[in-house]
Input
Amino acid sequence: MDALYTNFLTSPNLIHTNTLPLIHMEHRRWTFTNLGFAWMGTGSYLPREKAQRLMEQGGNSNLAKDRLRVIDMYFSIWTNQYPYQLVNYLMPLDQKNGWSTDGAMDAATRLYSALVANPEVSEKDYFPREEEEPLMADRHARSPCFNDKCLFKTSLDPFPLPQDVVFDDDLESIEDQNAKFRALEYPSNEFFASYSYIHAVDNDPQTCWNSFKVPQIGDSFGLQFVAPQQVKKMTVTSFKSLVGLEGKFSVMASDMKGEEWVKCRHTARSPHINTMTLDISCPSGTIIPGGVVSNIKILFEQALEKPLEVCGMDVGGMVL
Output
């Protein structure tokens, strides 16, 4: 929960929650028909005003008692915002009496009806109309590290963005809308389960994250630390060859906000073809006083030829 809270502090206006890889895939599919959903019971942080608004929404929606068991699904959908999800390993519980897709559909239907019935924003508008920042394209935190001391971050998102599919009010069925999504390039369930973000930082050298997309200029991957630290060495391991990456990237560092970045000096060596070790020296200054960093990333300055694969990292002595 420390890593999740660290991410919450970067954008405390949104719901932040943990989720399983395949549930995250389902959430991303849902973004093409509504705002997605989140399991609040898997560990979540949210601003107080959103909880207060739920009370107002519930009071004006006449929810039946049987719907209160899945109120978390109403909560996330009724914020009318995309929740910030971190992909994580979770221990499933027996929820055969607590899960209901009918509840999710009812929440989405009620939200749609409220927005259509009241197209003009008013003082008593219980459903926000404007998308809150950071936008989906700007959310780079993907998974908490296995030890809860850092976050794996990357700009490489294997999923299409919601705006890639424009909703059409004249569609005869929801399947017509889903067909638009399926026509886009996105990973299969099997691929994402095997190569999800969490596999880069799960302390298991036999599992790997695969970027799915080929990294382009400006793409990056790295870590955000719960507690800032000095980073003098960073090792990346993969099942694939990492030879040839040197000269195609810079090492960048930043404070907790991650808004301003400085370039760190680095030298690279490859003890093995699938291992790359960087000796790093980050300059001390106003952005990172004393050279202590909260964020560190590898920023590509040249496009690669194939998707990137990372099976583990050792950053500042923290083995991931």
